[in-house]
Amino acid sequence: MMSSKILLVEDNQDISEIISINLAMLDHQIESYSDGTQAYKHLHNVFDLAILDIMLPGTDGLKLCKRLRQLQPDIPIILLTAKSTELDIVTGLESGADDFMCKPFSVLELQARVKAHLRRTQVKSEAKSHEKPVLTFNGLVINPNLYQVELDGMTLDTTAKEFELLYFLASQPKRVFTREQLLDEIWGMRHQGSAHTVNSTMNRLRAKIETDPANPVWLKTVWGVGYKFAQG
What we know:
This protein folds into 2 domains: 5-127, Rossmann fold; 135-229, Arc Repressor Mutant, subunit A, CATH 1.10.10. It is built from 8 helices and 12 strands. The chain has helices at 13-24, 36-40, 61-71, 86-94, 107-127, 160-170, 179-187, 194-209, and strands at residues 5-9, 29-33, 49-53, 77-81, 99-102, 135-137, 140-143, 148-151, 154-156, 177-178, 219-222, 226-229. Strands 2-1-3-4-5 form a 5-stranded parallel sheet, sandwiched between helices. Strands 6-7-8-9 form a 4-stranded antiparallel sheet, with helices on one face. The chain has a 3-stranded antiparallel sheet with strand order 10-12-11. Strand 8 (148-151) and strand 9 form a beta hairpin. The protein is globular and about 55 Å long. The relative contact order is 0.10. The mean pLDDT is 89.
């Protein structure tokens, strides 16, 4: 895999050095900051991946994540947190993160996750040269080439993961997928709180495309199994 430029924002010097050394061993270039406000000033730089601690002096990691997602919609973002509650995890995902790791964590696992996210980004980049079919269902238009969803002529604001989940299910209507299958397909890995990762993304997606999210028409729950796209 080619060398990548990685943004690291971590205020603990020991942790920052350990991460930097181990990612440099994979031939990656690390741009490191210990202060969130200082890092915010450099978010316009082009990065291939970002690792952000949530609790930072100055601007916190969630604000950095939201801003970076606006500037680079496709960049993989990994959040580091000393907390592991469901609320913290969901808040991180809603801020635009792709993944999270709870401290203390294994450096080998971090290396593996970085490799996996960069590999998926490379595959997506190569795939952009091959257009995928636009899906249309009764006023719902899902355009994978623009990463755009329209409902009754209105463009919806969806995150990359929300879009990928919708497109994957809609491209195989009526087929039921387990949460584990969706996690592997959309996120590319298994991690703590995996069911909540899929569930929270599905709930946000329903809130955007369903008239009544509690009684969805498009995205159905198959109790005890998983989810399906109901309109064929």
